[in-house]
Amino acid sequence: MELSVGLFLESAPKRQRYLRAAHILFGLGESGKLSLETRRQLLSAAVEYLKNGLSVYDIQLFRRSCEEHLDWLPEDLIVYEEEEAAVGARAEVALQSALSSLERLHVEDGVGESNSNRLLATKRGRLESTELRGLRDQMRVAEVYADIHNYEAMSKAMNRLLAMTHSMQQTTSISNRSDSLFVQLEINRRIVELWLGAGNLDAVRSLVGTTTATLMTQAAECLMQIQFCSPSRLVPQQRSLEDLISELEEYALFFSIVRGLCMFEDQNFSGFAHVFTGSGLRGAG
């Protein structure tokens, strides 16, 4: 019995849906066993993802793969040259927009630095807000480079992003320390997802080891301080605290799964079994 195309594709992150469709069609060696209707649905979905995406590389690879199966592709499921050109133009616009956001942020930082006589507390809050905006903009640059498969530029953008998060951690006020730790965890998670999409497990390994485990520990310690050091304020914050605990558990699950899969790829089966136990998943230490 065949599963629906929706189950094949829609459960994947948006950036991965085309790759999942292409893998089913061209990478499994089983596509000949699909019904004509299922294959057409997969091809139709793949073409739509390509037309609405930013990757000329994926379009060209799809076209080469289809040339090996000319009997598969009806005329209405072809990405034409003008459509490919439109994707390339849209990718350039997206990249320039992301880079322009970073440039505007640098200009605003320069203007802000000239007003050095303002109250320190007010300035500290503004800078933290600016840093978060800078992280978002830098993350967007990395994501666009990932979409167009410029992994060298993506790597450089990620390195800048990690340096920014480290700098933020060093300068963030104590009252916002937990927020800054959760920002770093989210940045690490999104970078891991991009490297997984690029198929670079070497880069992933460096992000799911000791550094991330330390961040998780520090975040847990901050939550304990919030819970036990401010009892009079605990009730109003209870919902927020529970949300943070739930978020931390999701990060632990994500990073443990990814690290376990890296162990499996490395044939470190004892380490893999330590994570994926018979009684359930536990953190990879």
TrEMBL record:
Q: What is this protein called?
A: Uncharacterized protein
Q: Taxonomically, what lineage is the organism?
A: Eukaryota, Discoba, Euglenozoa, Kinetoplastea, Metakinetoplastina
